[in-house]
Amino acid sequence: MTGPTAVPARRIPGHLWAAVRIGAHAAPGVLAGYVVVTVAAGVGPVVAATLLRTVIDGLAGGREAAALLAPALLLACLGLMLGVVPAVRGYLYGRMLRAVGVRAMDRLYQAMSRIIGIGVMENPEFRDRLRMAQQSGRSGPGQLVDDALGSVESAIMMSGFVGVLFALNPWLALLALAAAGPALAAQLWLNRRNARMLWRVSGRARREAHYAELLTSLSAAKELRMLGLGGLFRTRMLREMTGANAEQARQDGRELWVRALLAALTAVIAGAGLIWAVRQAAAGRLSIGDISLLVAAVAGVQSAGSGLVDRFASAHENALLFDHYRTLVDAEPDLPVPANPLPAGPLQRGIELRDVWFRYGPDKPWVLRGVDLTIPHGRTTALVGLNGAGKSTLVKLLCRFYDPTRGSVTWDGQDLRDLDPVEVRDRIGVVFQDFMAYEFTAAENIGVGDLSAMQDRERLTAAAERAGIHQALAALPSGYDTMLTNAWYDDADREDEQTGVLLSGGQWQRVALARAFLRDRRDLLILDEPTAGLDPEAEYELHRGLRRHRQDRTSVLISHRLGTIRDADEIVVLADGVVRERGSHDDLMAADAGYARLFRMQADGYAATGERG
């Protein structure tokens, strides 16, 4: 994925049309009203200037007041309409912006749900593009619709006033049109430079946001204060802000000079038109009304031309962000999905990894190198090894967050790439090492493990009891309905000190386990360091329960504490991306190799500290 430095001008109409389509689906009535107001705002000034000439010439020519009443009343009504139009337009714009923003963000997050794996989300360039797409999705499409209709308004006004100038003096009309060419060319040049600048500073913006998050987040607060990191992070944040501001200042300087030159050119054209009008009036070839119309036309062409250039500039800038939005919304799935995927039936024989090689990128080292592994149905397979051995990577392959670089992972003999990934994942229960702590109620935090059980309090309670967290959750101020956060309050809760609760790390670990237990009807249970946040005694008791729960179930267990996996049917030792040893605990101890050495080392440590192994 490569980031664009600019959006080609030829692509802007496509982006404008896409934004208008979103607006038509999100708020058709509002958009229709917006179009009517836009046309009125473009036509009104031209008609008003023409009526004003009629009234002025009539007064100068001594016509009866009654004869001028109709154009005067029409002019007054037109003035009233033009006075009301901005307020109506602002109201419609606000409604359209909100409606379009909701629909656009919904489409963006629908597109995100089509991302099957997680590899693309770990790409920094993708994160930059996603941040810009989110920024655009909230207001960009609505702003593009406004830019499109604003351009129509300016074009209508310019066409009308150019027609007026052409009737008075064709050369003035041609001169006014010729001045619009350099203005548009200059704005295109500025937009390209601005687009390149925005892409250059996108990395700085991401790093600035990261340091700002570190300075204000609860998770970093303890280390920030204990280690005195506030000054370091603040300095780095300011460095990124200063660098981005310097880039923006250089771009602002370019815009200043270009706009000043364009303003001077416009002033010269206006001055030439006025000089010609004065000379024609002195010669008796123009009436007073003609002069008023000429002045209005010159000012109108300048205003419409400036508006057209500004709208084009705004459209080009918004199109840059909208380009990221459309790129993500229209993107194909990151992992291949067959047009007619095979059904992922209940696991009957087992899962097999056949000569699996994997690395996270073409320029990255191999994490797995020719792994052959069978996970039989109804049995527990434990994966052990030092950090970086490839254990968690294997879990990602089993969940099809990635595809093997070489080799295959099969479900009852069928390659995972031939199956529907949604169906496969629905047959797996998993506790990740980096599980989520949601700012939901306690019941919802467990219920997300199986949405069909979200309202089934009996199943939620049973899962919590298995995980050893039921009593703690039941004792909360509002029981299972207690919010597990102190951040999400409404006005009714703001004064209630018992509204939100923060759990300890070990308690959150048990909540994550309860989510997995809620999926106990699934075919495969994966537990990646399921008790890493528990003290040894709590870990020992929980593993006793896990042993009962795993009986006759297909499960994969990862743990650094070898004593907790000694009863697994097969223990697989990974090192440097390959399988070094495999067998039961007794077999591996008898082999007296790496596993036996690590087990004795841990057992000696537990004996010295009095912990259970």
Automatic annotation (TrEMBL):
This protein's GO CC annotations: plasma membrane
Primary location recorded for the protein, binned into one broad class: membrane
Domain of life: Bacteria
Molecular function via GO: ABC-type oligopeptide transporter activity; ATP binding; ATP hydrolysis activity
TM ranges: 31-56, 68-88, 171-190, 256-278
Domain ABC transporter positions: 351-601
Protein location: Cell membrane
Ranges for domain ABC transmembrane type-1: 35-298
UniProt entry keywords in alphabetical sequence: ATP-binding, Membrane, Nucleotide-binding, Transmembrane, Transmembrane helix
Membrane topology term: Multi-pass membrane protein
A Pfam family per the record: ABC_tran
Protein name per its UniProtKB record: ATP-binding cassette subfamily B protein
Organism of provenance: Actinoplanes xinjiangensis
